[in-house]
Amino acid sequence: MIEANRRKLAKRLLVEITHLYEEVKEKGDRYLEIFAKQIKRRSFISSAENLAYYLAIRNHDLRELQAELVPLGISSLGRLENKTLVTLQSVIHSLASIAQVETTVPKPDMNGFTRGDEQLARNIFNVLGEQEIERKTLIMVTMPSEAAEDKKLIRDLIESGMNVARINCAHDNASIWIKMIRNIQKEASCLEKDIRIMMDIAGPKIRTEWVFTKLKNPKLVVDDQILLTSNFDDLPIHFEGKLVAGSQIPSIYSALKIGDPVLIDDGSIVTEVIETAGTYAVLKVTRVKGNAKRLKAEKGLNFPETDFSIEIMSEKDKKDIAFACQYADVIGCSFIRTAQDIKEIQKQLQIELGEDATYMPIMAKIETVQAITNLAEIIFTAASYQPFALMIARGDLAVETGYIRLAEIQQQIMWIAEAADVPVVWGTEVFDKLIKTGVPSRAEVTDAAEGARSDCVMINKGDYAVEAVKMLDHIFRRMQGHLHKKTPQLRALSIANLRSTPPLDK
């Protein structure tokens, strides 16, 4: 009776999953048709195919199906990111065997189960450097200005476990950067280490350029109004709010709609649009950190629900890219929103490098809602042309999506990247307290351990950066025995025992 019920369940699930397989194959093939012509890198072809099929299957809610597969002792489809079709084929053939029926679905190619991991390892090496056997998650460190002079700091970072040195082009200048690079290269050579250099181009960070008020040091509270404008000379006569703030990016004002949220200063001031015009918008404060806060110039502006276009590179960014093409191993691209942004950067690389542009790795920083919406197109466009990685820039991303949504979004980005065999860097505020004070919070340790699911974790500069690298190195070495991406690793546990074990009956 039990076996008959098992065969009956397998037969029903076989029909469902075969239908799912056919849908995924058909829709995935349609996705591939869109992007196939632009794939210049042969090594990305199999990755693109898998990504297309993964996107197709993730259009379905599989939760009930997964629960029904568990009692049959076969894959519940929970770890198919980089092996989508072969996993479906394997499940179908297992169900057919249990149901004792034939299937026309092709048998899985056994090499397909390891293809993704092998390709990802090659991509990690091309972009970020060589992984260690005992610690596959790499460590990236943002260089402070003193790295231009302090060789001992660089040596200590390398000896502690740094794999990638990040130079933030929003700070310092070319004369400082070249000193940093020479010091990094010299110390890496002395220690016989392969340390990659990532130069992070600033990109279009939107900020308050100036703030004007007739009041003395006013603090914003809920229900206050702010006028955000591109033109100080053309202010509306009727505005009676506390502050006028300037941001000269015209495309924003034409795109803003009544009710759109506008977040200021990393989300510490939350507003919504209550009036718009061609050159300005009136914002009403809906939430303030600490109930009251001053607004100053040079504070970030985020528009999570507004779809607008903005030049991805300033003239300074183009000069920085020219410098990076000479000295960097990988170029970081900030505030990527669309596939068109990637194309603009690729054009600039072609200007600097010609045909060799296809060999220059780039890293797209995912930090806006628009980038999440366009993630698949961004990956297809970038990885089709050159070595490519993603950074989950959790600072701005948290502001745009909200902290609750961030927890979910960062996992989803890693799943889609894994499906494309694209390396992922887990960034922003990792060990933030430890780096500043020398002592981590308990939550930071847990966050760092979660970062072991990624291919590289980035930490910021600070007085205790060396200590942070050492702790990350220890955590990642321990976590490697327990976790790979979404897959738990069942190494022997030292705590899996009883202190008092009763004797066995003879």
UniProtKB/TrEMBL annotation:
Keywords: ATP-binding, Glycolysis, Kinase, Magnesium, Metal-binding, Nucleotide-binding, Pyruvate, Transferase. Gene3D superfamilies: Phosphoenolpyruvate-binding domains (3.20.20.60), PK beta-barrel domain-like (2.40.33.10). The keyword Transferase applies. It comes from the Bacteria. It catalyses: pyruvate + ATP = phosphoenolpyruvate + ADP + H(+). InterPro entries: Pyr_Knase, Pyrv/PenolPyrv_kinase-like_dom, Pyrv_kinase-like_dom_sf, Pyrv_Knase-like_insert_dom_sf, Pyrv_Knase_brl, Pyrv_Knase_insert_dom_sf. Residues 135-469 form the Pyruvate kinase barrel domain. Pathway: Carbohydrate degradation; glycolysis; pyruvate from D-glyceraldehyde 3-phosphate: step 5/5. Its EC number is 2.7.1.40. The keyword NAD does not apply. SUPFAM superfamilies: Phosphoenolpyruvate/pyruvate domain (SSF51621), PK beta-barrel domain-like (SSF50800). GO terms for molecular function: ATP binding; kinase activity; magnesium ion binding; potassium ion binding; pyruvate kinase activity. Its cofactor is K(+). Belongs to the pyruvate kinase family. This is Pyruvate kinase. It comes from Facklamia miroungae.
